[in-house]
Amino acid sequence: MSNPQPLEEEEYDMSGARLALTLCVTKAREGSEEDLVALERMFQQLGFESTIKRDPTAQQFQEEMEKFQQAIDARKDFVSCAFVVLMAHGREGYLKGMDEQMVELEDLFEVLNNKNCQALRAKPKVYIMQACRGERRDSGETVGGDNIEMITKDSLQTIPTYTDTLHVYSTVEGYISYRHDEEGSYFIQTLVDVFTNRKGPILELLTEVTRRMAEAELVQEGRARKVNPQVESTLRKRLYLQ
């Protein structure tokens, strides 16, 4: 019996414009400027046209996303992908603007979906969230091994509204996200280091980010804490940044 030939995975076409929008509340978030510097370096190295907006209110989070979408759809050139970085205090499903008001993440995600942003239809849309998702703290568990099962689905013949999207949260649902007052957040700094220094499909890179964060010991209030990102993907193809 002959061995089946491996299926050739498709890749997203990254030959066009790469666009990035960073919305960051710096107020009462010491170390966030270090994250902005790291992100700007990463976007420059990866060939992105990058825009940074500091200290948006809750309403401005929504307005800046809509301006980003309108600018993308107005472009005459080919657009390959969009990255959106959202950094603020928050709780599960919400970010807090500089005005202390809340904006719903789902409302921000919808702006660039396949229905609302035609230029990004079937193109990768990556969201990176550096924000708390609750008040819980993880002290870690001792394990002897792990067993990770990958679940895949057959490709669909039509494009659903919410495909081609990658959500990368700095922490899992319900937990705090940590940020150093001088060095920035461990999540953003680790992500930038991996994305700029390693090659491979983005989900593989994010596995490396998760591994590094899982191995790190963060000290908060004098106690060792663990934190790891959470990745939610509806990407249909491999996404290479390098």
UniProtKB/TrEMBL annotation:
Compartments in which it is found: Cytoplasm; Nucleus
UniProt keyword list: Cytoplasm, Differentiation, Hydrolase, Nucleus, Protease, Thiol protease, Zymogen
Annotated signal sequence range: none
Domain Caspase family p20 span(s) in chain numbering: 29-136
Domain Caspase family p10: 155-242
Major subcellular site: cytoplasm
A single MF term (Gene Ontology): cysteine-type endopeptidase activity
Record-stated family: Belongs to the peptidase C14A family.
Self-association and partners: Heterodimer of a large and a small subunit, both processed from the precursor; the mature active form is a p17/p10 dimer and the intermediate form a p20/p8 dimer.
Annotated protein name in UniProt: Caspase-14
Species name: Phyllostomus discolor (pale spear-nosed bat)
